Amino acid sequence: ESANYAGNSRLKGQFDMQFLVSPYTGQKQPLSSYDEIVTYFNSNYAPVFKAAGITVLWVNFGNSTLVTDKTTGSSSIVFTINIEAIEKTR
């Protein structure tokens, strides 16, 4: 979507991403917990977006769910990351 701030036209978008984190074969749980994934993301996303000329307006983490496969007994983490961002002034 196009946004106009102080006379500067920029592109803005909202991105909703769904993730499924599964364990390695033979393991029952993923190597990383939901909290570890969120902490890693929060510590690392800003420089990546900044280098691409994008300003992140907000980040929201959707509810996480632990899903267990009834056949294998292994569990996976399902969650979402929602981001609203805008390109920096051209």
Q: Could you characterize the architecture of this molecule?
A:
It is a single chain. The protein is an alpha+beta fold and 90 residues long. It has one domain (2-87). It is built from one helix and five strands, in the order E-E-H-E-E-E. Strands 1, 2, 3, 4 and 5 form a five-stranded antiparallel beta sheet that branches. It is elongated.
Distance between the termini: 16 Å
Discrete helix count: 1
Principal-axis shape equals elongated
| Tally of distinct domains | 1
- Proportion in β-strands: over 45%
| Coarse structural class | alpha+beta
The tally of strands reads 5
The helix-strand sequence is: EEHEEE
Uncertain ranges: none
Overall pLDDT confidence:
91
| Proportion in helices | 10-25%
Largest sheet: 5 strands, antiparallel
Label this structure with key terms.
alpha+beta, 5 strands, 90 residues, single chain, 20% helix
In short:
With 90 residues, the protein is of the alpha+beta class. Helices cover 20% and strands 48% of the residues.
Layout of SSEs?
Elements: E1 2-5, E2 8-21, H1 34-51, E3 54-61, E4 65-68, E5 75-87
Antiparallel strand pairs: 1-2, 2-5, 3-5, 4-5
